[in-house]
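note to self: dont lose this again. the chain is below, predicted strucutre after it. 54 aa total, dont forget to put it in the shared folder this time
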Amino acid sequence: MAQARKIALYMIVVFVLYTIITSPKRSADLVQIGFEGISSAAESVGDFMSELVN
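---
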């Protein structure tokens, strides 16, 4: 089972590197969307916690 997990991880890494190399602009757009989503989620959690305190 550990061997299968390691092989799957290597395949994912190779796929990500291939995607970045073949289309860096699209990859940058996806990373930006991801970070915007994380930022929005963190802001929402902060707003929620602030409302709990008040």
